[in-house]
Amino acid sequence: MEHSNKSARTLFEELKQRPTRARFGFGQKVAIVNVDPQKAYTLPDEYVTAYETDPKQMQYINELSALCRDLGSPVIWTHVAYLPSGEDCGIWGTRSNTPDSLQNVKIGSRRAEFDDRLVIDHDRDVVINKRMASAFHETNLPSLLMWHRVDTLIVTGGSTSGCVRATVVDSLSHGFRTIVPEECTTDRHESPHFANLYDMSMKYADVMPVEQVRAALLGMKQRPA
Q1: What is the DSSP letter of 48?
Q2: Up-side HSE of residue 136: CA atoms within 13 Å toward CB?
Q3: Full-model pTM
Q4: How far apart are CA 225 and CA 223, in angstroms?
Q5: Strand partners, 31
Q6: Where are the domains of the chain?
Q7: Res. 101 pLDDT band, cuts 50 70 90
Q8: Residue in 199, 218, 208 with CA at minimum distance from that of residue 23
Q9: Cis status of the peptide bond prior to 159, with omega within 30 of 0
Q10: What's the CATH number of domain 24-221, 3.30.565.10, 3.50.50.60, 3.30.160.270, 3.40.50.850?
Q11: DSSP code, position 182
């Protein structure tokens, strides 16, 4: 193990300047999965469970999602919500220590609602209720992506060290080129945030500025049919 006094942010910034491997790149068909952008996690003024890294995160997620719709590509939103009993949360629920930690859409939990700043097309977009960290775990996401012949998955949302990372690792494990727009993810503290951006960039995904992801999507739109 290499020892260093460098911060996680410094390590990530150095890796951006001097990448150690080639990018996976974009393939032929893209989809975007926006992981759990719910009020419980996006409104730090209301909930101690919420956090913000880039104040334009929701704006960027809307922009990338709109570009994917323009391409005829799937736009997927995940949210976490459980039965009132919490039994469908399993052992994970035993770590809960607040009255509304297991937010429940069916009883109108405000915590479980998507952030009001998001633009969700309920006629075209796919909404998935996931119960564990990865958007792939026991959901129809793999079959949905296979149906659309997707080979590239853009992952946004929170948290960088939790549900985003879990989804990214599973995405690569399922054989997808995986893209993480760095301004579109967030975590409670910069150390796990940048440490996981660094680790995902080293192993599992192309972590890149949102402007580069935007440019790539615009480039896909201009490809010959």
Answers
A1: T
A2: 19
A3: 0.95
A4: 6
A5: 153
A6: 24-221
A7: low
A8: 208
A9: yes
A10: 3.40.50.850
A11: G
CB of 51 within 8 A of CB of 186?
A: yes
Q: Are 159 and 188 in contact (CB under 8 A)?
A: yes
pLDDT at 156: 98
Active site residue 163: yes
CA distance 118 to 104: 20
User: In the numeric block, which tokens belong to residue 182?
Assistant: 């760095």
- Our CA angle for 174, 15, 67, nearest 5°, is 55
Residue 98, pLDDT > 90, answer no
CB-count burial class (<10 Å; 0-12, 13-18, 19+) for 95: exposed
DSSP state for residue 79 in the 8-state scheme: E
DSSP state at residue 115:
P
Beta strands in 36-181 (DSSP E): 75-80, 126-130, 152-158, 177-181
Specify the residue for token string 């080129």: 177
Taking alpha carbons only, the member of 115, 132, 133 closest to residue 57 is 115
